[in-house]
UniProtKB/TrEMBL annotation:
Native species: Corynebacterium meridianum
Residues binding Mg(2+): 90
Domain AAA+ ATPase, chain residue ranges per copy: 75-209
Catalyzed reactions per annotation: ATP + H2O = ADP + phosphate + H(+)
GO-annotated cellular components: cytoplasm; Holliday junction resolvase complex
Protein's UniProt name: Holliday junction branch migration complex subunit RuvB
Biological processes, Gene Ontology terms: DNA recombination; DNA repair
Domain notes: Has 3 domains, the large (RuvB-L) and small ATPase (RuvB-S) domains and the C-terminal head (RuvB-H) domain. The head domain binds DNA, while the ATPase domains jointly bind ATP, ADP or are empty depending on the state of the subunit in the translocation cycle. During a single DNA translocation step the structure of each domain remains the same, but their relative positions change.
Residues that coordinate or bind DNA: 334, 339
Family designation: Belongs to the RuvB family.
Amino acid sequence: MSDIEKTEFRLPDGTRPGQGAGRPADAPLVPDRQPADGDVETTLRPRSLEEFIGQPKVRNQLDLVLTGARKRGVAPDHVLLSGPPGLGKTTMAMIIAQELGSSLRMTSGPALERAGDLAAMLSNLMEGDVLFIDEIHRMARPAEEMLYMAMEDFRIDVIVGKGPGATSIPLELAPFTLVAATTRSGMLTGPLRDRFGFTAQMEFYDTADLTRVVTRAARILGVTADADAAAEIASRSRGTPRIANRLLRRVRDFAEVHGDGHIDLESARAALVVFDVDSMGLDRIDRAVLDALIRGHGGGPVGLNTLAVAVGEEPATIEEVCEPYLVRAGMIARTGRGRVATVAAWRHLGLTPPEGTPGVEPGSLTG
């Protein structure tokens, strides 16, 4: 086989595309030297309960459930993990399978549109396997009703045929453990929720735990970061490890392009300014909402649709993406008449709140 002709392209400064400043022109490009961003999430996931940072109550409770099941030699009770996105529900499901030494089968609620979809997956489970269903509240009702019997009795009834000639064939299942995740536990039906033997509510992280998450991720990625820089990234991560890891990767990019790759406090702050993340963790859309609410409508109350039109976004984006954190941060109050900016929102924009703003004591702004 003849050799393939290699053609090199160089920029005017002598570097190859993607080489970056300070890289020798003859240095080989190694595409697999660092994992791609799509693989980073998997690389950063902890492998055991001991490695998992934060959620101490959930970890301790889950450790008791798993240890007790292992001692009895049975499959543990079904587990429901509830909480906002990005707190580690999928990671916890992987850890459960790892701790049990079992195989993990993964699917999602929207993928289970028919009872037959669920039956096919359940019938392929081996004894002791862990089945993970993400966003279980979005599962179709026929599949959910089939899941009731599978969770309690480890069997399902498969309907063959249609009309008067249809017959029900019972199918025994191997004992398994269902681990389900939901971001909206209130949307689960009572019969489904009651069939879980252990329910865990994942909480937002504090800055100390998120700093440990950032430090651990930096070590895995081979990045050196000062303690105060890690704390700065953590403080702007909205209490969510997924956001903390994402911001760390962007700060890493900034440090490598504009410096020697080391992340100090100055480079972390400069990078976060470039990526529109302010000191409270608010991004461009969050600040646009506050600006429209305060400068455009005097602090409210403003209806959701009016607010969405003012910032050029869909109402669902405002309600599901922006509002949860703004409400939790105490910057927006939801009232029967609409959204109202609090004193914290006014001061975050550098403005003086008027009398009557939520959080302002009467007479505190006079004299």
